[in-house]
Amino acid sequence: MNECDILVVDDEDFMRGAIIETLRRGGYSAMTASGAHEAIDLMTHRGFSLVLTDVKMPGMDGLTLFRKIKELRPETSVVIMTGFPNLQDAINVIKEGAVDYLQKPFPPDKLIDIVEQFIDVRKPKKETDFANIITDDAYMLQILEKIRLVAPSNAPVLIQGETGTGKELIAQALHNNSRRHETGELVALNCAAIPGSLLESEMFGAEKGSYTGANALHIGRFERAHKGTLFLDEISELSWELQAKLLRALQEREIERVGASQPTQVNVRVIASTNENIEKLVDDGKFRPDLFFRLDVIRISIPPLRQRKADILLLANHFLKVYCDEYDRKIDGFSDEAMAKLTGYDFPGNIRQLQNIVQEAVIETQSDCVGEDNIHLRKTPLMQDETSVQEDGSVSFKVGMSLRDIEKEVILKTLGAHDGNRTKTAEALDITSRTIRNKLREYRDEGQEA
């Protein structure tokens, strides 16, 4: 580098020297400061792309220095270094905008990976990209502001929200507004959609011949997301064994393909999502607490659509335009009655359900306005006439129904009785949440709404 663009702040001479030598070998030059006040004096007169600062220093500590840097040079990326086993302080400043933390002692290649990602030549700041997130809701706007703040960091993110609330859009926005958008892809993996026997090889990859049918090397999602972002949807569906392997990948930044004898280094930011109460799963012994705390560095909780009433018509008009373009229809909008019908509904299926309702309305509307009769709201998915729920909660069936149809009706009626809550439905039927999801997917594949 022609310009010294890195500042190393540490009160230990040996540590400063070791970091400078590691950077030199990686092709980078840096300046040093033995304390926070010296660092502030330097930064008053010149800027740096990246500051690496220790936490425990005499006088002003590294956490206070980080906050001073954000006031003095808000464009500067800050990495926190700590030699103490309690990482909570480092995690807290990541939530405030630090880009990463390094736990001492750290391997040289880990330091270089971070420097490569966050050193720059003063690129003009690009516009924020919110990946088609459409909202006027005050709480959602706070979430978008949080995305702006935390997207540049490497910290894991845990997204919580009901099915259909747009968790993958949040993950996409986090990736789009990070520097990883320039170096890698957002790679998604739905942990509930792949059978458990195949999930390990899909996540971590597999060597040729490692199992029956493995006729070639299979690159897993972790490696595909190298220098990018891995989005693990429905993280709560991972088996206990896979949770342990994911934890190791996060801690060591390396994965081991199925059948491999050597690990593979990966540089990946992980974003996980769930529609379940993951703290309860931890308490019930169904989710590893150490993995939960590793993932739960930054939490984003998405409200359901019923709590975002102001967004219903905004989203409905967006989907109206999308499907009018797709089906080459000219529809100007919704009647007052249709709008009242939409805004008065709770949308248990959230945005995805609203999207389906508008798509159906566009297909069948014969005028230039979507009327109330074109809006079809289904309180219980897939309700059929062959069954009925009695006052005592029992279900009766018509003679001649197949066992598969009976099974379907039991699942759907129980789901309706629990207001669409899949976890409670699974507990009531003594089956797993994964089974519920797979069955609902089957019904959707048959062309029915679930």
List the defining traits of the structure above.
16 strands, alpha/beta, Helicase, Ruva Protein, domain 3, 450 residues, Rossmann fold, 19 helices
Structure overview:
- The protein has 450 residues and is an alpha/beta fold.
- The chain has four domains: 6-118, Response regulator (Rossmann fold, 3-Layer(aba) Sandwich), CATH 3.40.50.2300; 138-301, Rossmann fold; 305-374, Orthogonal Bundle (Helicase, Ruva Protein, domain 3), CATH 1.10.8.60; 387-445, Arc Repressor Mutant, subunit A (Orthogonal Bundle), CATH 1.10.10.60.
- It has helices at residues 13-25, 36-45, 62-72, 88-96, 108-118, 138-150, 167-176, 180-183, 196-204, 221-224, 240-252, 278-283, 289-295, 309-327, 336-343, 350-364, 403-417, 422-429, 433-445, and strands spanning 6-9, 31-33, 50-54, 77-82, 100-103, 157-160, 186-190, 229-233, 254-255, 264-265, 269-274, 298-301, 333-334, 369-370, 387-389, 395-397.
- A five-stranded parallel β-sheet has the order 2-1-3-4-5, sandwiched between helices. Strands 7-8-11-6-12 form a five-stranded parallel β-sheet.
- Helix 3 links the parallel strand 3 and strand 4 (77-82).
- The longest helix has 19 residues, at 309-327.
- Mean pLDDT is 86; it is low at 380-389.
